Amino acid sequence: MLITFKCRAAPDVVMLENLAQYLVAIVGKQLGQRGVIAHDELDKAIAKLEEAIVVDKKETAEHEGHFHEGEEGHELHELPIGLAQRAFPFLDMLRAAKKENVDVLWGV
Question: How does the average pLDDT of the chain come out, rounded?
Answer without folding.
Answer: 88
